[in-house]
Write a structure and sequence with these properties.
mainly alpha, single chain, 11 helices
Length: 225
């Protein structure tokens, strides 16, 4: 019982620290400058490793439900259409898979708590039982739900990981190709990151509040709150 209490306390502490970090980052960090500096670093210092690092950068952004379109545009700007498309396509897929695996394991109860906010997803879940690959592919081609939330919602459906990965990779290709192409037409990195500083406080605060709601549900689920 003592072991369980210490484990529970550690879980609560970690979740609250993560929430605090997200809130502080949303309101204090110069996101546009950080993204621009990251892309400059990829361009000037990494050489042939640049596309790989760009692809890996999708993982934290996707897990935190931060739009990663700036990376997609950056791939086109930095590497051109062929290499940029491959790097961004792989990056978007591994980011989506990372969020999926997190939702299917450690964050499953959190995702289930959010399902009530998306009642239209119930019919999708039922359809996935019969045609998982096709439904995921269609959802990627015609995004009826927010991309980052879709990664988590799909994690609690019966779709297999391999079907999810392949359908997501194929379904995200058209929008990835379009954004990479747009990136190749931009003249400066400022054009790639432009607009991030214009995000309203209301939009930024909605994510931490949603996270807080899910954390409270998690604590209640374990009888700790």
């Amino acid at each position: 019982m003592a072991s369980f209490s210490w484990t529970s306390a550690l879980r609560i502490t970690v979740l609250l620290l993560l929430l605090a970090a997200v809130v502080v980052a949303c309101f204090t960090l110069p996101v546009e400058k950080i993204l621009k500096d990251f892309l400059l670093w990829v361009e000037q210092d990494l050489g042939a490793w640049g596309p790989l690092v760009l692809a890996v950068a999708y993982i934290p952004l996707t897990i935190l439900a931060v739009p990663a379109s700036v990376l997609t545009l950056g791939g086109g700007y930095l590497f051109g259409l062929p290499i940029g498309f491959v790097a961004d396509s792989i990056g978007a897929t591994i980011g989506a898979c990372a969020a999926f695996l997190l939702g299917r394991t450690l964050g499953r109860s959190m995702v289930v708590a959010k399902l009530k906010d998306y009642p239209q997803f119930r019919s999708v879940a039922i359809a996935i039982e019969r045609s998982g690959f096709k439904i995921v592919l269609l959802l990627r081609l015609v995004p009826l739900l927010p991309f980052n939330m879709l990664n988590y919602l799909l994690s609690v459906t019966p779709v297999s990981f391999m079907e999810y990965m392949l359908a997501s990779w194929l379904g995200m290709m058209p929008i990835t190709f379009a954004l990479v192409y747009v990136g190749t037409t931009l003249k400066d990195l400022s054009d790639v990151t432009h607009g991030w500083s214009e995000f309203s406080p209301t939009r930024w605060v909605s994510k931490p509040l949603n996270i807080l709601h899910v954390i409270c549900y998690q604590l209640h689920f374990y009888g700790l709150f």
